[in-house]
Amino acid sequence: MRTTITIYRQLGQYLDAVDAEATANGHGPIDTNIDQDFRSGVYVGVGMCNIVLSMMPGKLATLVELFGYKGDRKLGLELLMKAGGWIDGEDEPRISVGGLPVSFNSWGYLVLKR
User: In this structure, what are the phi and psi dihedrals at residue 18, rounded to the nearest 5 degrees?
Assistant: First the structure.
C-alpha cells in the first residue's frame, strides 16, 4: 500500500509539473503531449488513495499520518471528477469515450460523492 501511494503521488506531482510548464510556455492549462489514458489513470489512482485514507477510522488515521500519509476526500473526489469528465452541477460526464475505465471511474465518483 505504501509503495502504491508513493508512486501515485509522484506521478501526480509529475503531471502538475508538466502542466505548470505547459502553462508557463503558453501551451494551455495541460500538457497535451501526455496521453489522456495515462493522465486519467493517475487521477483515479491519486483520487482513490486520498479517499481511502480519508475514510480510515480516527485512531488508524492518526497512526497512518505518523508515516506521512494523509487523505483529502474533497481532493480525491475532484480528481475522480477530472478523470471521468464530470463537471460540477451536470448530470452526465463530458467524456464520450466509453469502456471499463470510464465506467469504473463514474461508478466510484457517483457512489463516493453521496
Answer: -70, -30
- pLDDT for the residue numbered 100: 47
Cα-based distances in Å from 107 to 26, 47, 58, 84, 111: 35, 14, 26, 10, 6
Burial of residue 61, with CB atoms counted within 10 A of its CB: 0-12 exposed, 13-18 middle, 19 or more buried = middle
**C-alpha grid cell for residue 31?**
500538457
CA dihedral 23, 69, 76, 49 (to 10 degrees): 110
Overall average pLDDT of the 4-23 stretch: 93
Rounded CA-CA distance 31/48 in Å is 23
Burial string for 68-99 (b: 16+ CB within 10 Å, else e) reads: ebebeeeebbbbbbbbbbbeeeeeebebeeee
| pLDDT band per the 50, 70, 90 thresholds, residue 109 | low
